[in-house]
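The authors assume throughout that readers already know how a fold can be written as discrete tokens. The format is easy to grasp once an entry is in front of the reader. For illustration, here is how one protein appears when written out as sequence plus structure tokens:
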Amino acid sequence: MSKFIIGLTGSLGSGCTTIAKHLEKEHGYNRISISQDILKPLAQKDDQFDSIEEKQNFGNKVRENNELRKDYKTKLLGLIENKNEPIVIECFRNPIEIDMLRNEYSHFYLLAVYAPKEERQRRKNSEKGFELADKRDKGEKMCKPS
């Protein structure tokens, strides 16, 4: 039987987590957080998640390391299989992850969430490095301030 899964993607601070939490609380969705439920448990003790940059660095490390990528896939698919329907997954940052779910589940739907930069920045004002992280997410060249 195919599972009904909604995946959320969007720029940093766009509202994916807020939407996922709403679907969980108000509509009974089972929520999976990529960073909290998958990446954080895969991280070694020397990998930190204190800043946006550290989360991005570890996400890149997972995508570049075959063993970590395999562990990521196993962890994600295991979480999906152990949850009842419907499921909402937040926050996808890489097309490879999305393609994997599209290939595994015929009832996987991806929704992109948008918010203007000023609003996203306001929402993330407590996290250091928003500007650099936002550019990095978009694939833009970055210059660290001197």
